[in-house]
Amino acid sequence: MDRRKFLAVATAATGAPLLAGHTAAAAADDHLPALVRRYLDRALDAGSPSAVCGVVHGARTHVAGAGEGPGGPAPDGRTVFQLGSITKTLTATALARAVCEGTTRLDAPLVLPARFPVPHKGPRRITLADLATHTSGLPSLPPNLLAGADPEDPYAHYTLDDLATGLGQITPATEPGSSYAYSNLGFGLLGQTLAFDAVDTMLRRRVTSPLGLRDTTTTLRPDMASRKVVGHLAGAPVPDWHDHVLSAAGSSMYSTADDMVHFLRAQLHPGRTPLGAAIELTQRPRFTAGDQLRVGLGWHLSPLSGGRTMTWHNGGTGGFSTCAAFNRESGSAVVVMVNTYSEQTATDPRPVDALTFALLDELDAA
Predict the structure, then answer these.
(1) CB-count burial class (<10 Å; 0-12, 13-18, 19+) for 366
(2) Residue 199 three-state SS
(3) Which residues of the chain fall below pLDDT 70?
(4) How confident is the model over 158-189, as pLDDT tens digits?
(5) Are 107 and 158 spatial neighbours (Cβ–Cβ below 8 Å)?
(6) Can you tell me the distance from the alpha carbon of 324 to that of 29, in angstroms, rounded to the nearest whole number?
């Protein structure tokens, strides 16, 4: 793999996708299975070995999967995929919960143990809100991450000692709070400042367990391993990603469509969950990055047709691509998960993103 592709894989699902225009068609509730099947077929046509799609439409939920190979069972809502950067919305929820409980503030500065130099530019320190809105000025990755990395598992070798060295090599590109630039490093540091060297345990105790997301975890249980599909890159099987240091950014989380539909229902109806105040806080726009993009804590907000707004995040690792989006006004939500890496181009969004947004728009128009 050349360095350009290596960088693209290591920074999968960064920034705002391009929103493709289309004509929405009505989708009656009793047509949900056929509608979802149509989008699954499109995912397979775009090169995914298998795909799962989950939708929420008012009181109805439908989850289904499809695979191109004959003979084997089709994936379903319990099939395990790597989640990628959708994990950032879980990390942001952990931050919001701490804020709501009064144990930290959004304007609190980034604090790490003494041996980890915190980059700075200008008079103001980087805050937790800057990390959660991608306005810290930090680069997408530590400058020393890719040196000696395995292109098929680029985070696995990286240690806390490496992070300390890498932070010392960084001068932020902009002053904190002044400009949007998607940063996996920033969210990795957000996790570390919330729970140093215990990020995965913190996310499980503070977010996924209270919300009932049993299969959303960085550690595969034996029953999950038996349900996991193999990731692919350019048609070839590839290993999963592993990461301990920057996992809060989404480099090693697993999940299922059933879990993500449950999570999206929590986004649509925060008051019905034990984390309602925190979820509401994550969805509140805090930074305007352009006409087509506002940023909450972790979540991105972009316009749909007709002036409506969707809240979304996409994700990806070396062999998986995911996207989740919802509209609280219509009570609709969509998640699509495929077991192949895909890359956004200068003119086209990733197929998984385009399908997710088109399906949400179609549901909203019903």
Answers:
(1) middle
(2) helix
(3) 1-29, 69-72
(4) 999 999 999 999 999 999 999 999 999 999 99
(5) no
(6) 20
